[in-house]
Amino acid sequence: MSTIDLDEIIKALAHPVRRDILNWLKDPATEFPDQEHSTDFGVCCGQIDQRCGLSQSTVSAHLATLHRAGLIRSQKVGQWHFYKRNEETIQAFLDTLGKEL
């Protein structure tokens, strides 16, 4: 199990758009059916931008916050950046939260 920063994760989850992104990444094939690439790599940043309806820079800032908190992983394939949930960190957070409260 990885070490987590509980406060960093809670801050990341404090914004509804970041929670939406995490929820969408639970089932990328369903939530992003128009993605041309396989969802094995995750979801392309451009798809997340479109779904959010926010500027690319705003979405990038949200993704960076989630990444810093360890809630998502990123992978660059060619010119594209793909994102997926980091289930290990999410589960560690839930386990820790259950022990803390």
TrEMBL record:
Keywords: DNA-binding, Transcription, Transcription regulation
Keyword RNA-binding set for record: no
SUPFAM superfamilies referenced in this protein's UniProt entry, alphabetically: Winged helix' DNA-binding domain (SSF46785)
Occurrences of domain HTH arsR-type (ranges): 1-101
CDD domains assigned to the protein according to its UniProt record, in alphabetical order: HTH_ARSR (cd00090)
GO MF annotations in UniProt: DNA binding; DNA-binding transcription factor activity
Top-level taxon: Bacteria
PROSITE patterns to which the protein is assigned, alphabetical: HTH_ARSR_2 (PS50987)
Protein's recorded name: Helix-turn-helix transcriptional regulator
